[in-house]
Amino acid sequence: MKDYKAAFDSERSTVYTVTRLNRQIKGLLEATYPYVWVKGEISNFRAPASGHCYFSLKDERSQMRAVFFRSGHRLLRFRVEDGLEVVCQGRIGVYEVRGEYQLIVDRMEPVGQGALQLAFEQLKEKLKQEGLFDAASKLPLPACPRRIALITSPTGAAIRDMLEVFQQAPCPLTLTILPVKVQGAEAAGEIAAALDKADELADDFGWDLVIAGRGGGSLEDLWPFNEEVVARAIARCRIPVVSAVGHEIDTTISDMAADLRAPTPTAAARWVTERLEDIVRSLEEYRSRLRRVVDQSLSARRKELEFLARRLPRPRRRLEDSRVHVDDRGERLRLASRRRLEKARERFHLLEHRLGAHDPRKILERRRELLGQRRREMALHYRKILDRHRLALQKCALKLDGLSPLGILSRGYSITYRMPQGEIVRDPSAVERGDRLKVRLEKGSLECRVISG
Amino acid sequence: MPRKKQGESFEEALGKLEKIVEAMEQGEMPLEKAMEAFKEGVGLVKFCHGKLDEAENSVQLLLKEEQEGWTTEPFDSSSEDG
Q: Where are the beta strands (DSSP E) in A17-71?
């Protein structure tokens, strides 16, 4: 710097040519800024056929020209575009001929997210716009994957883990490994080529599924599966592709482009075996359902047949039935007739009875009977009356007897009658001397004459 | 586009099988038809089992032979260098 200052001083009165001044400016600037980091926003970006990137780097107030030569930006993971906020490392270069200076960029990093991250976002957006991730473009997955192409490293943990899981499959599997690098610069190309190979050889080997993947690692490690070539190869492939990259939390562009994402290679293998187990189980189920429904159907029909057969009138049965029928009817007939007969008999008796009630002989008989009865009754009554009278008479007689003068006689009294008239003499004056008297004594009478009185 | 397999594919067979079983379970099938359906169903089950067992149980490594194009050799997972 000192030299130039001295030179300026000594030549202050000199009149420069444009070239000379430009050259000096070039020398000054290029020496002063051989290595700078500049932060700014990209604008006016152009990338002509040469492949070099020309753009302006600007901030709120000013801008500066910049160029990123192909050799440098070829290695960039992300796409350089307007509006991108970047940090560039480079040097100032002066293009003497036009008196312009620019920043010659050696390295460029996005501000904010990492370069890889940015590249990821950019590619994701681009392919999404193209429809590479559309559900409609996904191939249907095979129900029964048995021949599988595995695109992975032949020496990694991934293949070991997958084979271990595949051992458990319920039916034989034919696995073909298409060995590839799974990290580093060549990986993406190899993986894409392998996918194309799988597509090409599909008919010969009969693969029904491709699993492309690798074990876990950093974003850098997994980067091949975020590359455009791989994504496009996956989309192109006519066989369904399962992307099985890294750990559960990693999602790569391949995952989005594939027809199925498996969180890890082991998960992919497990998906296959589970699918097959489901199929085997389904088949068993179908088989037993078929059998069951046929058995049920047959059994139902058989029952129905037996039932009908039982109801079918066999001849002997028929005869027996008829016999029973006849007997039954016969019995009922008998009962009915008897009942009728009884009824008739009753009726007859009733009528007979009623007729009998009017039979003259009967009437006579009855009357005779009645008469007899009455007679008897009468006799009875008569006797009764007679008895009653007799009794009364007896009573009277007794009474009479009691009152009988003759009774007195038993006591020694006598009744004197004046004869011939026979008047009873009570008074002695009633008689004269010499009257004939009858003296009744108890036990007889005395003929007497009055002596005195 | 998945490549077309000759004859009936596994998926088609499985689909038919499901339909047959469901139809039979509906009831209402006349006896002859039910027997036919059963026969077909059992046949499909056999077919599917056959397909499952069709593949050879093997693990192969695809190699590129310079002259002969692509070939395979058995893969020995224990022979890796980590």
A: 36-46, 53-58, 63-68
Q: Which of residues 135-154 of A touch B (CB under 8 A)?
A: 139-140, 142-144, 146-147, 149, 154
HEC sequence for A368-425: HHHHHHHHHHHHHHHHHHHHHHHHHHHHHHHHHHHHCHHHHHHCCCCEEEECCCCEEC
Question: Which residue among A147, A154, A290 sits closest to B42, beta carbon to beta carbon?
Answer: A290
- Domain A2-112 in this protein, CATH class: mainly beta
Q: Is residue B35 part of a domain?
A: yes
Cβ–Cβ below 8 Å for A176 and B52: no
Question: In this structure, how many other beta carbons lie within 10 angstroms of the beta carbon of residue A444?
Answer: 8
pLDDT tens for each residue of B33-71: 888 888 898 898 888 888 888 877 888 888 765 444 556
CB contact under 8 A, B80 and A160: yes
Whether residue A401 is predicted with pLDDT greater than 50 in this model: the reply is: yes
Instruction: Write the residue in B25, B52, B56 that is nearest to A289 by C-beta.
Output: B25
Tokens 């562009």 label which residue? A253
State residue B3's pLDDT score: 41
pLDDT tens for each residue of A217-231: 888 889 999 999 999
- The number of domains in chain B is 1
The residue ranges of every structural domain in chain A are: 2-112, 121-280, 408-449
Q: Residue B14 falls within a domain, yes or no?
A: yes
User: How many other C-beta atoms can be found within 10 angstroms of the C-beta atom of residue A282?
Assistant: 16
Answer yes or no: is B3 within a domain.
no
Work out the minimum CA distance from B16 to partner chain A, whole angstroms: 11
Contact A241, A143 (CB under 8 A): no
Tell me whether residue B57 is in a domain. Answer: yes
Single pTM value for the model: 0.58
Q: With CB atoms and an 8 Å threshold, state whether B80 touches A155.
A: yes
Q: Name the residue range of residue B21's domain.
A: 10-74
Residues of B in contact with A175 (CB under 8 A): 58-60, 75
* CATH number for region A121-280: 3.40.50.280
Contact B10 A301 (CB under 8 A): no
